[in-house]
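Box S1 | Example of a co-folding query
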Amino acid sequence: MLKGKTALVTGSTSGIGLGIAKALAQQGANIVLNGFGDAQGPKHEIEALGVEVDYHGADMSCPADIEAMMAFAAQRFGRVDILVNNAGIQHVARVEHFPPERWDAVIAINLSSAFHATRLALPAMQAANAGKGWGRIINVASVHGLVASAEKAAYVAAKHGLVGLTKVTALENATTGVTCNAICPGWVLTPLVQKQVDAKAQALHLSNAEATKLLLGEKEPSLQFTTPEELGALAVFFCSPAADNVRGVAWNMDGGWAAQ
Ligand code: NAD
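Box S1 (continued) | Returned holo structure for nicotinamide-adenine-dinucleotide
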């Protein structure tokens, strides 16, 4: 379905981003990976799916790096057809104890990076398909883009902001073939969440299994993690012709979290 298209997924060396990159590659899209840590493993995994893959190590907190990454992708593949703004970090502390530099980092990586990548990707998307436009922008927000939790001020503010950016981008392109939507996962067992399980286990003297059960039980009625594969399938739907008129939604996949 996506053969000949190119998808750039930020923060795709692990977790949800890697799951979405694989799902898009399974549909035939060429992939630009980004993120820290080992890029060779993910690159080889995706190459094995029979598509072309490249990697750019832009630090998503740095607008100049994002510009370099977008220029690299355009030069390497001609155009970015699908942009998945996924890179994200977390910091947990009450507002009065929240380190200002952590606030700035969360806002830069979880929100401003999506603005920069989007503004740079849009002109080519708008010009595609003989000027009628074709493009998909998928923002990986969170259930925390819809509801709040204590001690996550920067994350909740950034994710609510990302849902707002999603709606504006969708509206500004509503008469074109460029759509923009957000995905709002509940708990997904990735390194980002394992750190929170570890913190709970340590603070309450619990085993990993007990801390995991407690974490899920506090918020997620299904008591189950959403998987990167399930989120990848939702991203594939947003890229399909069936989703041509899905615009500006914030679609939660959260085991019922936001329904409470
Ligand atoms: P993860 O820690 O497994 O992956 C994060 C990715 O972002 C990694 O590839 C990492 O290298 C990259 N990254 C971090 N800082 C970066 C930077 N400055 N520049 C470039 N890349 C950077 O986390 P994840 O759980 O897969 O999270 C992915 C996205 O999903 C995040 O936006 C997160 O907020 C969101 N999310 C996660 C959950 C969850 O339960 N795990 C729930 C809702 C939303």
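The beta strands are 6-9, 30-34, 53-56, 82-85, 135-140, 178-185, 250-253. The pocket of nicotinamide-adenine-dinucleotide is lined by residues 11-17, 34-37, 59-61, 86-89, 109-110, 140, 142, 185, 187-188, 190-193 (CB under 6 Å).
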